[in-house]
Amino acid sequence: GIVDTDAAKARQLAAEYHTGVFTDHRELVGKVDVASVAVPTDQHFSVARDLLEAGISVVVEKPMTATLEEAKELFRVARQRGSVLHVGHVERFNGAVQELRKIVEHPILIESRRLGPFVPRVQNDSVVMDLMIHDIDIVLGLVEGEPRRISAVGRAVQSAMPDVANVQIMFDTGTIANITASRATEQKIRTLAITQPEAYITLDYTDEDIQIHRRAAQEYTLNHESIRYRVASFVEHLHVHKDNPLKLELLNLIRAAREVLAGGSVELAESDDLRSLAVALEIERMIREGRGEMAWPEDLPWSARSA
């Protein structure tokens, strides 16, 4: 079924996909097992909670909720009702990102850019929640450590919210991540670069292309005046299975919901989802308040001890 407060739009979509029309999400109770929530962020919590409490499994568009407390409450309700709760971090299902997780080891420096033109329909969320949260989630998933120090700057350009932001995250492993997001750039750029021991890895999200640059050998030449050397390197192009990440994300939710309905259990990505949201919220707060830099104590806000 299609739920939309715009009845005309709901009827149009329902006719296209041969399904029912509703104007209130609560009308879905008893009619569906799975729902995708893509309403304005400030409504995510109330809509998702109603559905989860009714035993409906839900995927919520990112950012999950407006506060960390609301996010924790949704996971509590999902566990209590035996529902599946997924967050729409669609890049997790990007074939290139999945391959990247297999080859990244002990990253030294991660550089991420997600730039593009302004889209008028997205004005209620900052660029941090609109775009950067994808890269925050990816970076946190690649580094085997916790973020400890963050510096952040940003500014509004096209809207009343920050449209450009740059963030540096220092992890307790020593990894440094530099993340830039913009919705004030005329060219669409989606790239990630990773420096790690003995390799430099680049990823283009648009082409789903991964290149691994490795040093092959060093040749030394000795003459009477100096020692000359030449460094040779080679580039590997990693094969990536390409598919529609959004389709894969929804199929993953459906499989999980069927497992639960059949009496099985599914492990929710609660820790990862809460951590990504907490970091994004903190970055947004830092930019809003002009604080520039902060450090987290040992008791992290998304950890079990802080729940």
Query: Which class best fits the helix and strand makeup?
Result: alpha/beta
Q: Structurally, how many domains make up the residues?
A: 2
| Distance separating the two termini | 35 Å
**What's the average pLDDT?**
90
Q: Using the alpha-carbon principal axes, give the shape.
A: globular
In short:
This protein is of the alpha/beta class and 307 residues long. The chain is built from 7 helices and 14 strands.
How does this model look, in words?
- The chain is of the alpha/beta class and 307 residues long.
- The protein folds into two domains: 2-88 and 246-268, 3-Layer(aba) Sandwich (Rossmann fold), CATH 3.40.50.720; 91-243 and 277-306, 2-Layer Sandwich (Dihydrodipicolinate Reductase, domain 2).
- 33% of the residues lie in helices and 30% in strands.
- The protein contains seven helices and 14 strands.
- It has a nine-stranded mixed beta sheet with strand order 13-12-11-10-6-9-8-7-14. The chain has a three-stranded parallel beta sheet with strand order 3-4-5, sandwiched between helices. It has a two-stranded parallel sheet with strand order 1-2.
- Strand 8 and strand 9 (176-182) form a beta hairpin.
- Helix 2 (41-53) runs parallel beside helix 3 and helix 3 runs antiparallel to helix 7 (270-289).
